[in-house]
Amino acid sequence: QSYSIVLAVLLFLTLPDIAKAQTDSLVLNNGDTMVGELKEMRQNKTLISTDYSNEDFKINWDQIKQLKTTTRFIVTLESGERFQGFLSGTSERIKILTDKGTLATTSLNSIVFLKQIQSEFWRNINASLSVGYNFTKANNLSQYSVRSNLQYRGQRWSGSTRYNHIISSQDNVPSTERLDANVVYNCFLKRKWFLVGEVNWLSNTAQNINLRTLGKAGFGKYLIQGNSLYWGLQTGLSFNYESFRNQGLDLQNESAEAFLGTEANLYNIGNLNLLSRIVVYPSLTESGRWRTDLNFDLKYDLPLDFFINFGISLNYDSQPVLEGKETDYVLQTTVGWSF
């Protein structure tokens, strides 16, 4: 009898968790039904966990015919509108609901982002880390590279940080090093507009930059915000502080700049993901100087959240610091994991 009491207590304690994990249902275009916990939808991929599998299922968002959730989500529409609520309906007519009623009615394809509302901070974070290593015996060339990203997204704002680091060394040649990092804050406004604040850091031996710190503030707009492509523009002002070394002396340079940038992210093309970004900085305080930063990433998804990434980063400066090169670029191939 004591065992029965213990079992009953355990069932009582675990039933809420079981019920919570089985509150969302999806009906697919082929007629299959899935019941479980819908976690998120981003870049046209839906993530759902079930009791009958240890691995989460990834389903194309456009393969869903009908859904109903009691999980509460942050919902972003193609129009740029953002809501918090539950979802219910068919692919042609999805209602975004709260306990008080209907917030909006839309189609499934008009929903471009879903994220569970979580009380735990860490559960709202997406991150990835990839590393690479190359070695050539002929001249003992070794190259180490690390690429990482971290993002937190709320209903009205998002924060992200990036860290890329490359170290190369070989016989009879000075070692080279390149470090590129940033912290970005976006505040989402109506009609696809947003505010942006960003701090960038660059250290690059090829351009004789000990450290460049760049503070940016401006605004932007998403021109396209869909389930296969994001494309946006941004502009604003920036302040550039550079430190470098010349003839044994540590020198500094300060300048004010404008910036104009564009970023495009193409996905929903099988296991491929293309991300490109270019920003131009015309100087406001140094006549004739302008800089360009370009990044391109091609990512191929592997099983178990692993991926292969091919990246290109390019920096151009029409008036580089003393003993620095106008143009420097790097090519990276890394293997990583997203979580």
Shape: globular
| Radius of gyration computed on alpha carbons | 24 Å
Low-pLDDT ranges: 1-22
Assembly form of the protein: single chain
Helix content: under 10%
Q: Give the N-terminus to C-terminus distance in angstroms.
A: 45 Å
| Counted beta strands | 22
Compressed to H and E, one letter per element, the order equals HEEEEEEEEEEEEEEEEEEEEEE
Helical/strand content category: mainly beta
Q: What is the average of the pLDDT values?
A: 86
Question: What would your notes on this structure say?
Answer:
With 339 residues, this protein is mainly beta. The protein has 1 helix and 22 strands. The strands form 2 sheets. The chain has a 12-stranded antiparallel beta barrel. Strands 1-2-10-6-7-5 form a 6-stranded antiparallel barrel. The model is unreliable at 1-22 (pLDDT under 50).
Which tags fit this structure?
339 residues; mainly beta; twelve-stranded antiparallel β-barrel; six-stranded antiparallel barrel; 1 helix; 68% strand; disordered N terminus
Lay out the secondary structure.
Blueprint: H1 2-21, E1 24-28, E2 33-42, E3 45-49, E4 57-60, E5 64-68, E6 73-77, E7 82-90, E8 93-98, E9 101-106, E10 111-116, E11 125-136, E12 141-153, E13 157-170, E14 173-188, E15 193-204, E16 209-225, E17 229-246, E18 249-269, E19 272-282, E20 290-301, E21 306-317, E22 327-338
Antiparallel strand pairs: 1-2, 1-5, 2-3, 2-10, 3-4, 5-7, 6-7, 6-10, 7-8, 8-9, 11-12, 11-22, 12-13, 13-14, 14-15, 15-16, 16-17, 17-18, 18-19, 19-20, 20-21, 21-22
